[in-house]
Amino acid sequence: MTTNTTADLEQSLRKKFKKPLFSKFAKAINTYNLLQEGDRVAVCISGGKDSMLMAKLFQELKHHRKFEFGLEFLVMDPGYHEKNREMIERNAALLDIPITLFTSDIFDSVYHIDKNPCYLCARMRRGYLYAKARELGCNKIALGHHYDDVIETILMGMLYGAQVQTMMPKLHSTNFAGMELIRPMYLIREDDIRHWRDYNGLHFLQCACRFTENRADVSAEEQNHSARIEVKKLIARLKETNPFVEANIFKSVENVNLNTLIAYKKDGVTHHFLEHYDDV
């Protein structure tokens, strides 16, 4: 199906996609206490399907008006090519999202960094977003990470980082006092986001990273051969024999038994099971 009006797009969220999208959005906000009366949230839009949908879900939540909160729809241009920036602006107009767009030179800053440019880019992006959000009077920024991002992060930490950790539904900022990061898409499946996009005939940015786009020495195959892609494939294979594997991964970090851990970290301090082993 191809949708031509904003009203049709919004109606699809209220009807066809209410259960897999809006209901799970609202559930995450309630479960993790992500939103309080009087909050002003900077909804951070990258131009991809996840953040664009998040913006629409926030607008839909606003219509319900259980309590008052403010929204700023924030788009940072870190150095996009003109066609990518124009796509974001066209989609924002189609979806009736009143974006605030500002520019930075992040892509230029990290382009010649050989070691971990993606990590540095992500850190710089978040810093710019926090600063602009605070300038606009916001006390929270919202990012569009979803359920699949969470379970992939858990496995990546174990398989590639030798640690057990998760992507938290909310975090206090360590560099911007009084600011908080929230992830209201936390319970939404990526397949449902794709279904909403395709049902409405929408086209969003896939990846506008200039670093990989302009490097002639990086083949498409090498670009896709990342830890996250490998973990996605692993989960898909496991799901063939265990349909509950995704839910089990997600719940595993809610059911941690400290009595069966060799060691764990709390506030940067490592604790070992031998510390209290003889305390019987």
Q: State the CATH architecture of the domain at 6-147 and 166-215.
A: 3-Layer(aba) Sandwich
Beta-strand share of residues: 5-15%
Number of helical stretches of at least 4 residues: 12
Rg estimate, integer Å: 20 Å
Main sheet attributes: strand count, strand direction, barrel closure: 6 strands, mixed
Number of strands: 8
Distance between the termini: 65 Å
CATH topology of the domain at 6-147 and 166-215: Rossmann fold
Task: Write down the overall geometry.
Answer: globular
Q: In terms of per-residue confidence, which ranges show pLDDT below 50 for 5 or more consecutive residues? A: 215-225
CATH class of the domain at 6-147 and 166-215: Alpha Beta
Oligomer type: single chain
Could you give the order of strands across the largest sheet?
A: 3-2-1-4-6-5
Proportion in helices = 40-55%
Task: Look at the helices and sheets and give the structural class.
Answer: alpha/beta
Rounded average pLDDT: 88
Order of helices and strands: HHEHEHEHHEHEEHHHHHEE
Q: State the CATH superfamily name of the domain at 6-147 and 166-215.
A: HUPs
Give your account of this protein's structure:
Helix 7 (147-161) crosses helix 11 and helix 7 (147-161) packs across helix 12. It is globular, with a radius of gyration of 20 Å. Helices cover 48% and strands 13% of the residues. It is an alpha/beta fold. It has a six-stranded mixed β-sheet with strand order 3-2-1-4-6-5, sandwiched between helices. A two-stranded antiparallel ribbon has the order 7-8. It has a domain at 6-147 and 166-215: Rossmann fold.
